[in-house]
Amino acid sequence: MSNKIKGRYQKILNRIEAACKQAGRDSSEIVLVAVSKTMPDEDVLELLETGHKHIGENRAKALEDRMEAIKDESVQWHFIGNLQTNKIKYMAHRVNWIQSVHKKKALKEIEKRAEAEGRMINVLVQVNISGEGQKSGCEPDQLEPILKYGQKLKHTRVKGLMGMATLTEDPEKVRPEFRLLKKLRDEHLHLNAGPVELEHLSMGMTNDLEVAIEEGATMVRVGTAIFGERNY
Ligand SMILES: *Cc1c(COP(=O)(O)O)cnc(C)c1O
Is there a domain that residue 104 lies in? Predict the structure, then answer.
C-alpha cells in the first residue's frame, strides 16, 4: 500500500494548523471531514490507518455502499450532498452527520428514521450563501422556521450551519460568503434550545479552507487535497 494519502493528509493537517495560527485559533476547534466521493475503498482505508475518523460522501448511494464496505465502528459518517428526502432511509441506520438539511420536511423524515433506528443523528442546516444561480441550501430567511422546528426533535440534533461557496479560483472572492454564514449563525444563536445548538460552521474545501478558518469555520470538507483529483 502506498503512503500517498497519508502524506497528503499530513499536509492538510499542516495547512489547518497554519491557518489556525494565523487566525489566532486552536486547531482542536476544527473538524476535518475527508470527502472520499468517487474514490476506491482502499484509499479510505489507508486514510483511516492514520486514526482519522470523519468521512464524507455527497451521494446517498455512495454513502450507503461505503458504510457497508467499511465496517469500522469508530468512523463518523457525513452526508454532504444534495439531500433528497426519499433517500434518508438509506442512510439513517448509520450516518452520524447530515450536513445538507434545507427544509423542515427533511428534518421530519430524519427524526422519523432516527427514532425507528433508536439513534441520534446530527444535522447542519445548509444555507444558500452563494446567491443567485446555485440553488443549494435554504434561503437565509428560512433558517428561523427550520430551527424552531428543530427545537422539538428528540432524535435529531441541529448542530450548526453548512455553506457551499461559489466555485472560483480566487479564495478571497468567497470570503464574504463565509462571513455571511457566520453572521447568520450568530444572528440565530438565540434559537439554541433543546437539541438546537449552533456550534458548527461547515465551510471551506481544498481551495479555500484557510479563508474559511479565518472566517470562523469549525468544519472543513476536503476531498481533492487528500484523495487526489477526481475524474469528473
Ligand atoms: C466534493 C465536495 C467537497 C470537497 O471538495 P474539494 O474541492 O475536493 O476539497 C466539499 N463539500 C462538498 C459538499 C462536496 O461535494
Answer: yes
